[in-house]
């Protein structure tokens, strides 16, 4: 057998620990598949003495994580996290030294992916990040290899395991948002800063990477319009169910007016759509290609085992010498596209208001919609909540987004509203 692929591993937390366990358990099979063993030789994290449930005494310990790139290794694996800081320093120095670089760090790739891809190409080194998008699902490989012959018109899906776990628990058990978040954190799904998950930022990181690979455009995280699930109430989930929908946080990217359209938002998904049946920390990505048709990738989007599976799959590719440009084409071929104007996009909408229980409130909402040219398909009003306010949920007929925004703007500051309205798009 040929020389092992020698690895330096930065980060020994949920995913780093998973990678060590996976290589311990499946190492012999992986060596046969890769044509050579994959061996961790050096590791680093913050705390050398932490009990990690795996034996790390057999590896060289490196105090300064950013110094891992100067070890005698073929590939540096970064599982620390953070868009900048030691992760970015390590990425730059590893690639500059001509070493392969594998990461699960979507924040860093969303912000600095283009620069790192250019550095990798210059050095002739591998830059791979399958674990960064939808965890264990081989969606990057699927798009950059399996669907490479297609023009992709739209890519969308459930990209955050924590949010999907929370929404499906809220739906199944009627439980409180905060309580379920704590459970997702305990299971190792949530980011170090869980606001990244619940405010849609993590999904936006992933969407910008996915869109770049799907459309051949430069990653443009700043152009992703993102909001999360912290304002979704159990009542919204119940109303959606009564209307034949489930609430899911979706990332959606397609070609829009004037550029690329990228959005992360809670959506109403028709119960007949496969994404409505994706529960727990599972992720699912739909890609629509002009020759292959609709592809659906589904699987575990978070957690130690699935994420380690994606990291090690990247290592196997490198061990085989099979790696191409990080974003599926040379970085010089990636197009710089601006953000599309969403105002003219047409669709049906769910808008929920918390209102004071008094005469004329419904008329005020209806008038704001009418004046903006938005036609109401259905309206549900539920009894008073704890604070005495009443929930009014409307579903609109198809309307341009600009018109719905106008109606909400007109209602802003109204004495009738007791809280911010929640606007969710309906997936068609
Ligand atoms: N958890 C998941 O399901 C998924 C995570 N990811 C990504 O994988 C990466 C790792 O996530 P995860 O394993 O969950 O994170 P953890 O918080 O579990 O682990 C992070 C590791 O990095 C080490 N670390 C943190 N800060 C520093 C630092 N400044 N210098 C050196 N080492 C540091 C920690 O050291 P110590 O242990 O000593 O504190 C720890 O070992 C992130 O980019 C995340 O977004 C991607 C997909 C899924
Ligand atoms: N925090 C992320 C982890 C995987 O990327 C998630 O919940 O999906
Ligand atoms: Na993946």
Can you put this structure into words, describing what you see?
- Residues 350-424 form the ACT domain.
- The active site is at 206 (proton donor).
- This is Homoserine dehydrogenase.
- The protein is of the alpha/beta class and 428 residues long.
- Helices cover 35% and strands 25% of the residues.
- Strands 7, 8, 9, 10, 11, 12, 14, 15, 16 and 18 form a ten-stranded mixed sheet that branches.
- Strand 9 and strand 10 (259-270) form a beta hairpin.
- The chain is elongated and about 80 Å long.
- Bound molecules: NADPH dihydro-nicotinamide-adenine-dinucleotide phosphate, the ligand N[C@@H](CC=O)C(=O)O and sodium ion.
- Sodium ion (NA) binds next to helix 4.
What is the count of distinct domains?
3
Structural class: alpha/beta
Provide the CATH top-level class of the largest domain: Alpha Beta
CATH superfamily of the largest domain: Dihydrodipicolinate Reductase, domain 2
The dominant shape is elongated
Give the H and E element order.
Answer: EHEEEHEHEHEHHHHEHEEEEHEEHEEEHE
Helix percentage: 25-40%
């Amino acid at each position: 057998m040929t020389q092992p692929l020698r690895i330096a591993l930065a980060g020994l937390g949920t995913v780093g620990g998973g990678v060590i366990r996976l290589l311990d358990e499946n190492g012999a099979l992986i060596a046969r598949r890769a044509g050579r063993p994959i061996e961790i030789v050096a590791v680093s994290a913050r705390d050398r003495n932490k009990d990690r449930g795996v034996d790390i005494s057999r590896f060289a310990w490196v105090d300064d994580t950013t110094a891992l790139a100067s070890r005698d290794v073929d590939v540096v694996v970064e599982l620390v996290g953070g868009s900048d800081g030691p992760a970015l320093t390590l990425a730059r120095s590893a690639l500059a030294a001509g070493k392969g670089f594998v990461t699960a760090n979507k924040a860093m790739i969303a912000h600095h992916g283009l620069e790192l891809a250019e550095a990798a190409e210059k050095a002739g080194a591998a830059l791979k990040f399958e674990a960064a998008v939808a965890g264990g699902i081989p969606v990057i490989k699927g798009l950059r290899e399996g669907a490479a012959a297609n023009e992709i018109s739209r890519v969308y899906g459930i990209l955050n395991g924590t949010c999907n776990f929370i929404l499906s628990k809220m739906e199944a058990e009627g439980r409180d948002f905060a309580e379920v978040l704590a459970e997702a954190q305990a299971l190792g799904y949530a980011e170090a800063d869980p606001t990244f998950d619940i405010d849609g930022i993590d999904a936006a990181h992933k969407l910008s990477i996915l869109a770049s690979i799907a459309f051949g455009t430069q990653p443009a995280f700043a152009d992703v319009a993102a909001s999360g699930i912290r304002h979704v109430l159990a009542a919204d989930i119940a109303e959606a169910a009564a209307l034949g929908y489930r609430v899911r946080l979706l990332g959606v990217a397609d070609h829009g007016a004037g550029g690329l359209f990228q959005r992360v938002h809670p959506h109403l998904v028709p119960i007949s759509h496969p994404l409505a049946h994706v529960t727990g920390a599972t992720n699912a990505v739909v890609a629509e290609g002009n020759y292959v048709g609709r592809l659906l990738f589904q699987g575990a989007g978070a957690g130690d085992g699935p994420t380690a599976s994606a990291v090690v799959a990247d290592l196997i590719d490198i061990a085989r010498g099979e790696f191409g440009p990080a974003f599926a084409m040379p970085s010089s071929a990636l197009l710089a596209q601006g953000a599309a104007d969403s105002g003219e996009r047409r669709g049906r909408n769910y808008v929920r208001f918390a209102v004071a229980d008094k005469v004329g409130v419904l008329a005020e909402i209806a008038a704001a919609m009418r004046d903006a040219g938005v036609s109401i398909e259905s309206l549900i009003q539920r009894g008073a909540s704890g604070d005495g306010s009443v929930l009014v949920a409307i579903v609109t007929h198809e309307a341009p987004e600009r018109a719905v925004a106008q109606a909400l703007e007109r209602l802003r500051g109204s004495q009738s509203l007791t809280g911010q309205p929640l606007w969710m798009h309906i997936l068609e």
